[in-house]
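quick one before i forget lol
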Amino acid sequence: MATKKTVEEIPAENRFTKQQLIKSKKYAPKADVLGAVLLDSETYTFSEVDKLADTFLKGKVN
């Protein structure tokens, strides 16, 4: 007998390395920013990358 799931599983966002993001077409215009902001040892979702890049670009210049 088949069982019904009562709670739907929420699919996790895909995570990408710094190099994958820098080489992607989506982030090609921001490759220099990503190179400065992202860590080699971490993985990131698109929403995390967008937030980090926007925060960096909106920062104050001393």
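fyi The two ends are 67 Å apart (CA to CA).
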